[in-house]
Amino acid sequence: xxxxxxxxxxxxxxxxxxxxxxxxxxxxxxxxxxxxxxxxxxxxxxxxxxxxxxxxxxxxxxxxxxxxxxxxxxxxxxxxxxxxxxxxxxxxxxxxxxxxxxxxxxxxxxxxxxxxxxxxxxxxxxxxxxxxxxxxxxxxxxxxxxxxxxxxxxxxxxxxxxxxxxxxxxxxxxxxxxxxxxxxxxxxxxxxxxxxxxxxxxxxxxxxxxxxxxxxxxxxxxxxxxxxxxxxxxxxxxxxxxxxxxxxxxxxxxxxxxxxxxxxxxxxxxxxxxxxxxxxxxxxxxxxxxxxxxxxxxxxxxxxxxxxxxxxxxxxxxxxxxxxxxxxxxxxxxxxxxxxxxxxxxxxxxxxxxxxxxxxxxxxxxxxxxxxxxxxxxxxxxxxxxxxxxxxxxxxxxxxxxxxxxxxxxxxxxxxxxxxxxxxxxxxxxxxxxxxxxxxxxxxxxxxxxxxxxxxxxxxxxxxxxxxxxxxxxxxxxxxxxxxxxxxxxxxxxxxxxxxxxxxxxxxxxxxxxxxxxxxxxxxxxxxxxxxxxxxxxxxxxxxxxxxxxxxxxxxxxxxxxxxxx
Length: 566
Prior knowledge:
By secondary structure, the protein is α+β, with helices and mostly antiparallel strands. Helix content is 21%, strand content 25%. The strands form three sheets. The protein has a 15-stranded mixed beta sheet that branches. The chain has a four-stranded antiparallel beta sheet with strand order 1-18-15-13, with no helix packed on it.
């Protein structure tokens, strides 16, 4: 299919821009009768994919990199002006019953390890709702004052009714604490005793997402986001629940952890815990979705099965045309090889543990790394502000990596041969072209040139381009496979320094499709679960008790859609 090429050169700046006009097909205030035939066709596709119509207009920016008509966020993004800010949306403190560190401890380490933004997500619980959510507030405000170059969001780890956990966080402002408290008291599964599976509890989760969206629309807060955490860990996040969360409000429910935290858990004993990487060492229970295979209860190259399986659950959502983004984070509770221990205090009474104190031995049984030490979520923001970070996550301008595998990533879709880059579409966007136009993807990577925190310079070995047809809504909301997605091109990486560039030409396109990119150090691999014809050399399943995370590094990028019109 078409041609490919790549070359190696040194870093250089280059401007990229995106058309700032809102296409008529996306402007729901323009009736069909006033559209051109091609725009009528395009709008028909969007409606069929669930991207236009009641409740869907709010999600437009999540796919099309255009001004969001429902959430006015100013001019369209100029891709060349993006700042790639590294962050972590899943971090615990002494206000979680199973953690121990102060807010400032996590924040100082996050900054030291290169993060630009972070979210404090202590567990939702009766104690947290009653005491902790208030008590952590001044600590967050103090950390914001002390570390002004670090964006520190307040959030919580939501016990999703009938399901797993999720990150919920809001834009800072006068009502952020009030909104988080109201949400936790009304919709947290542990607080409301709604953690068991069942339709009523599933409906409460959907209602909670809608409530957050309403708080934004009523301007109580400037933004709210929800991402599902470790979604395949226990098999309790069914496909229809994930679809229901996303459809409840695409401006709030935007994605899931592509890779869970707890990455040190797989380090073999006696140096490490000797468990499942990401704490993915479970088996199905009565609450689990019965359709998931046993392989889904393990990580693959450190990534959740929903993300790592080409043609799997993530791809089934993308093939519907649904924006659903992936992230990576630390889920930091207690850090591997640290000597600190919990300070004195009664959590049930105080809503927190005492400040940590110096201990006398290294904790080889801890499963976590400090924020930024291993896992990073990179967001393409227009400015280094809270709003810009949230907008970037919402819009899918996100890529993730482990272990500092690469230094930077730039992925763009465009009309083949258009070197002017005026029509380049970045991660999370939709490239619209006339049917029959040749389309290409360009990938530019700055290779790692500094040792990571394990004291070696990672070497990128291969980059894969994955593509799949957009086939519209599924008839079965519990579908978690899609048959027309596969690895379409792999590039071997021979260079060790500087920047490498790759181009894959998809040829002339006549149907909508999406593309996504991943890369690996090449240390471990196996044919994907859908077979070698779909994924000839994907990540290998992590073995419980023998999965050193530093020996198996990957990066993943969020998708770009290509939409041909007549």
